[in-house]
User: Fold DUF4288 domain-containing protein from Amnibacterium setariae.
Amino acid sequence: MPAAEDPQTLSWFGVRCLFRHHGDVYEERVTLWRARDFDQAIALAEAEAREYAAVLSSPDGQNEYIGFAQTYVLDDEPGHGAEVFSLMRDSDLPPGAYIDRFFDTGDEHESTV
Assistant:
């Protein structure tokens, strides 16, 4: 963000970027950005996404930002319980099938809590 930006004209944005690791693992990553509009938020996030992928690079060169970003403007300042990203999708699936289709496919890398 340029030093000349007036903080009063900036908003907070959550930007979700997608990465591919070693050809068969995909990562969704949400980062927060202070920007004047959606375009600037995406530009900032994509620049950082390319750096993130480069830092994770392995000898096979298989870590990459795949060029997909979605953004969400926060209604308030980030803080405890603040919503940082939201995506709404139309679907005729019942709740269990929706979760299985989009979120709990069995291929996720996650910890049990």
